[in-house]
Structure formats: C-alpha cells, structure tokens
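4-hydroxy-tetrahydrodipicolinate synthase: structure tokens wanted.
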Amino acid sequence: MSKRQVLVPLVTPLDAHANVCRHSVQQLVRACGPLVDGFIPCLTSGEGWNLSVAQWTDMLRYTLEFAGHTHRVVVGIELPTTEEVIERAELAGELGAREIIVTSPFAEGISQEHILAHYQAIHSRAPLDLLIYNESALSGNEKSFDTLLEIARLERVTGLKDSPSQARTQAQIARIRQEGVDYFIGWEHDLAGELLSDGNIVSLANLEPALCRVACLGPQPEVAAIVARLNETFCLDEDDWYAHVKRELAARGVLRSSLTTQEQGAHEHAALEHFSREYAR
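Answer:
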C-alpha cells in the first residue's frame, strides 16, 4: 500500500465583506501543514457549491501560495453541469492547479451512463489529474461501484474520496486500488476503523490534523472513540457542519471570522432591505 496521506478539505475563511480572508487561509494552512500531505480548497467543507467565481479563485490562489511546493493542492469544483466543470477546470489550470476533484452533475435520478460520460468529458477536455468525489448529499445521486471502476480506469484519475451511503467493503477498496487509484476515506465515522485505505479526506482534519494522521494507521478502537466524541462535539453530521468547524477555528484564533456563505447572503439581503427603506424615506 502506498504512503497514507491526509488531505485537508479546507473551510473557506471569509472576512466581514465576504471576501476570502488571505490571512486566515495562511493561518489555517500553517496550523495543519506540519501534519498533513496536502489541501483541497473549495470542496464541500469549503462551501464550494456556493462560492462566487471571485471567492473560488481567491481561495485557490491563496492555498497555492501558502502550500508552496511542499504540499499537494487539489482544487474542488462543485458545479451543476459538465460544461461548467470543464470551464472552471480551465481556470484552475490557468491559476496553477495540477489536480481537481469533482462530483457528479447535480441531478436526482441521473443515469450511471450520464455520470460516466460526465467524467469522461472532463478527463478528455481538461488536462489535469482528476480525483473522484463520491457523495450524494450535494449532487443528489451516487455512483454505483461498477461506475466507480469505469471512472477509475481513465488514465489521469488518481484518487477517490469516498463518502458512500452504504458501507464499503475491504474487497471493494482493493478492487478500486487495482486500477491504480488511491482510496481516501471520506467519513469521520470510518476513521481508525476496520477499513484499510490510502488515507483520508475529512472535515475533522481542519481541526485535528494529528488525530487524522494517527487514524491512517489502521484499526484503533481508542482513536475511533475519540473521533466519535469529536464528531458529536463539532456537529460534523449536521447539514451545516462547516459552520461549526468555522466557529471552532475562529474560537481558536485560526480564523478571523466564522462567516459562512449562507450568512453572507443573509447579511446582503438585510443590507439591501435597509437601503431600500432608507431610500424610500
């Protein structure tokens, strides 16, 4: 098995004006850096589906800047359609990214053939290494195991962040790895459990990178119990888990603000209403 890696799906720090806070990105990368192998900006923990192009661009730029040449950077692209993903992948390449990680198209009831065609099109038109993100909460669909194998056979597919709705077996993981693809655990509740993997990509790594590193070493009931406790403490199973992670990082002084993109929208709406009332006077 290859060297196990911890890749951090970074939260996206925003300032009071909803711009990406460069200082906070620097602090977060520095806090995690000695204990991890790389960073994934703009994935789901980074509210990637809800970032503006400017926010997405700045988050990638700052991550590349502070990760330097010592850490791997894989940028998340969470957009509804194949064409939008390809367009964003082109921008990623222009900004200096070498790897991307993408979901399926956003559509409930989508066919497995459509999902496979999505990845084939991205692979053929975007000359970057490609990681698969298997999930269902954002895209509204999930890849079958056979579809995962088909995608894994594409030449530049290098890894899979797996957050399946049904428990994965070790035999399935071994089969994926036979295609030359690294398998990354995507759920906190699988850390330090029975599954052997090539590492993990979990939100908890923003807060506890050392624990996520230790969890790579295989089954450890004591470590799994600690993870379970932290999972509950930081509400990592909630729909707005990233907001709880941001609040904790702000409390620790790593981030200057815990503002989320949803709160940003609420603030902008309130400001617009206030302006409208003032203008009407």
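Residues 134 and 162 are 5 Å apart (CA to CA). The radius of gyration is 19 Å.

Cheers.
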